[in-house]
Amino acid sequence: MLLKFAYDDFIADRKFNNTTQANINSYKYMIKPFIEYCIEEGAINVEDVTHNHLKNYLVMCQQQNKKPNTINTIILRAKAFFNYLVDEGIIQDNIAKKIKVQKVDIKIDTFTDNQINQMVAFYRVQRKRHQSYSSYRNLLIVLVLLGAGIRRKELIMLKWDDVDFKNQTLQVHGKSRKYETVFLTDKLTKELLAFRAFSRSSFKTECEYVFITNKNEPFTINTIDYVFRELKQKMNFKDVRVSPHTFRHTFCRNLVQSNVNSFTIMKLMRHENIVTTQRYVNLWGSHLKQENDKHNPLNNFDF
């Protein structure tokens, strides 16, 4: 079977199985260049592709200074592609199964309290100075991301019907394609109520989405990315990524450093398993040191 046709069938299968558009785009971005590389190397048919083709392609990516995380994603996507070909009976073995992912240094960006205060102060000044919808909206984006720990896509898809002011919750369309409950504090609930009143006074008709453009249109990925590119330029922070997910990491770090137990953090972060949560606890937690100080065997001896 021609490799390019196998690739097309794989993408069609992902769509048929209702894979998210983001994942489909990732498959295209990560696998298609590899397919093109194989064809250039003379591996026109699926059966011509070998373990060495993938290994040499990954070495080339490394020489092009692609980051380890990117290379690991290529490996995972390639494994999924060849698993599909095995399941369909097109090939016998997955040539990617013995390729190991690269070790990655763990660095998770979070904002300091000072950086958060700078961002909030900046938008508050902008709101007071210009009295514009966008300045107020951008302030609320920062407050919701920091106070609720939701993801970028969840923020974009958030509708006013998803906000329960009485019970102080949000219903967000989560990562696993199901609605999940996120809790609001009194302070954030009041901020959202005031923002809704301002939004209603700014437009003739109320949009169903919480965060919209100046033209009363729903946010897109490009819109939110533009907001954060602008914020990054204004703040000029060093060694920290100014992004929605950094706010989520900051939300999680604050829970860990407040000695919230791992199970509660998992539920508040809406992680699918405790392993993900434990990764953050191990990175930021102080309870291990406290337990060691309390129970260390040397405590039983006088020096």
Name of the CATH homologous superfamily of the largest domain: Intergrase catalytic core
The largest pleated sheet is described as:
3 strands, antiparallel
Coarse morphology: globular
Category from helices, strands and their pairing? mainly alpha
Radius of gyration, in Å, reads 24 Å
**Low-confidence spans: pLDDT under 50, at least 5 residues?**
none
State the end-to-end distance.
Answer: 76 Å
Order of helices and strands: HHHHHHHEEEHHHHHH
CATH fold label of the largest domain:
hpI Integrase, Chain A
- The strand order across the widest sheet is 1-2-3
Give the strand tally.
3
Mean pLDDT: 88
Beta-strand content bin: under 5%
- The helix content is 55-70%
Can you walk through the features of this model?
By secondary structure, the protein is mainly alpha-helical. It has 2 domains: 3-87, DNA polymerase, domain 1 (Orthogonal Bundle), CATH 1.10.150; 113-287, Intergrase catalytic core (hpI Integrase, Chain A, Orthogonal Bundle). It has 13 helices and 3 strands. The chain has helices at 3-16, 21-40, 51-63, 68-87, 113-130, 133-148, 152-157, 186-202, 221-235, 244-257, 262-269, 274-284, 287-295; strands at residues 163-164, 169-173, 179-183. The model has no long low-confidence stretch (mean pLDDT 88).
Notable traits:
303 residues, 3-stranded antiparallel sheet, hpI Integrase, Chain A, globular, mainly alpha, single chain, 4% strand
Topology:
Layout (H helix, E strand, L loop, with lengths): L2 H14 L4 H20 L10 H13 L4 H20 L25 H18 L2 H16 L3 H6 L5 E2 L4 E5 L5 E5 L2 H17 L18 H15 L8 H14 L4 H8 L4 H11 L2 H9 L8
Antiparallel strand pairs: 1-2, 2-3
Helix pairs in contact: 1-2, 2-4, 3-4, 5-6, 6-8, 6-10, 11-12
